[in-house]
Task: structure prediction
Amino acid sequence: MSTIRTVERAIQIIQVISQHPSGIGINALAAELALAKSTVSRLVATLEQHDVVQRTELGKYAIGNAPIQWVSQRSYSDVLSVRALPVLQHIAAETGEACTLCVLDGNNVLYLQQMQSQQDIQVRDWTGAQLPLHVTSAGKVLLAYASKTHLDDYLSNPITAYTKHTVTDSAMLNAQLASIRQQGYSYVSQEHAEGIVGIAVPVYNKRNIVIAALCIYGPEFRFDKTTIEATVALMKEQAEKLVG
Amino acid sequence: MSTIRTVERAIQIIQVISQHPSGIGINALAAELALAKSTVSRLVATLEQHDVVQRTELGKYAIGNAPIQWVSQRSYSDVLSVRALPVLQHIAAETGEACTLCVLDGNNVLYLQQMQSQQDIQVRDWTGAQLPLHVTSAGKVLLAYASKTHLDDYLSNPITAYTKHTVTDSAMLNAQLASIRQQGYSYVSQEHAEGIVGIAVPVYNKRNIVIAALCIYGPEFRFDKTTIEATVALMKEQAEKLVG
DNA sequence: AGAAGTGTTCCATTATATGGAACGCAAATG
DNA sequence: CATTTGCGTTCCATATAATGGAACACTTCT
Result:
C-alpha cells in the first residue's frame, strides 16, 4: 500500500514538535528532518492553521489543542496507559520484574497495562483484570490515598482472606494504609497469592493528587531487603516522570 | 502564507475519524469529505502506518495511540480544559451564567477554564486563579470527595472567614461536605464574596473517581429556588459528558 | 449465483509540493 | 551606529508526487 510522502513529513514534524514541550523553531525542525526551511515553514503553517501546533510566547512551535480534541473520545485510562508505556518498559528492564500501572475502579484495582518480566519464572499478566484493593500492593496504595467516601465504603464490606497472610482486620489494614502514606510506597507479601510479593508507589498529577499506582510484582524469593529498597527508589523516580 | 492541501486533507480525515469513537470506514469518510475512495484509502493508510489512526476489531478506523503520545507533554489539566470547553460553552449559554471547570490544587481550588456570562452584570473571570477550598462551591465539592489525607490536612489549618457568611467551624464544614456527598452538588452562598453564589457538581472519570468540579456562579439575585434546581439538573447531565 | 459492500491497485495526467534563493524583520555584535 | 546573524516567509521554475476514475479482489448478504 503506497503512502503519501507529504503527510508522512507532516507527521514527522508533529512528532518532533511534541518532543519539545517548550517549543522548537522552523530552522531546528528543518535541520533535524533534513528538509528545506521553506518546506517546513509551509507544513508548519498548515498545522498551525488547524491548531495541530501552536505558537508559544517565545515564537516557537509546540503541540496545539486539536490533538487533544482528537483523543477526547479515548478514555482517560487509554491516555494514561499510552503515556505510561515507556516508563513501564524502563522499570521492567531495570528490575527484571513485571511492571504494571493500575487505577482505582470502584472497590477494585484495575490493571491498565503490564510489561512482563523476561525471566524464566514469571507472574501472570493481569492487564484488564480487577482485583480487590486490600490484597494487592497497588490496591493498598490507591486505598491509602482514596477519598474518605471510598475508604469508608470499602471498610464497611467484609474483608475477604485470599491466603493465610491476608490482612482482614480493618484496624490493621488502616495501620497499613497510614504507614503507606508515611513512607510513600506499599510492600505487600503474599496477601493475594502464595509466593507473590508486590511493591507499589503512587502516581501523582502535578497537583499532588494520586491518580494511579505504579507497581511491580514477582516471586518472593527474588525480593530481598536490598532489592526492595533499590526498587522503591527507582519506582518513585519513574513515577515522577508520569506527573502531568 | 500558503498551506498544503494534502496535509489539510489528512487533518480533515483525522478530525472526522476522531468523531467516531467506534470507528468509520473508507467509503463513509470519502462520502463525508467528497474525496475519491482511492485518495482517502492512501491517506488513511499513511495515518495508520504511523499509528495516528488504528483499525478496530470491526475493521473500521478509529483514533490511534500516536496522538496520545503527542499530547503526553501537555498537562492533564490542559487536556481536561480542552475537553471541557464544549460543555462549559453549552452550560453558560443555557444558564446565562459564568461556567467554570476547577481542579484540586493542594489546599486550593484552581480555575482551569471559564466561559463568561453575556449578561450586563457579570462575575469576575477567575481562570488561572486559586482560591481556598472552603469558601467556594467548587472547592467544597472537591473537598467533599478528597482523600482522607487531604481533608485532614485542610482541616488542621485555621479556616479563614472571607465574609460574614463564611463557615469557619470545622464541624459545620464537615456537615456541609457530608450533605454535598449525599445530594451530589454544592450550593454556596456569599461565603467568598458578598452577593455572589455558586453551584458545583463533581466530574467523575468512568470509574467514579472525582477528578474535577463543574461550577457556575453569579449574582445572588439571579438564583431563586427554581433556577437552582434546573441548574443542578443541567450541570449533572453535562458533567456526565465529561466522563472518560 | 449474483448483488452489494468493503478497501486496494493500476495508470495516465496534471497541478501541487518542492527547494533554492531572495526577502523582510528583529536581535546581537563590534 | 552599521553590520552580522538569526528567524521565518515569499517567489518561482520544475518535476514528481498526488490525484481520481476504473478495474480488481475479497467478503457478506439475498
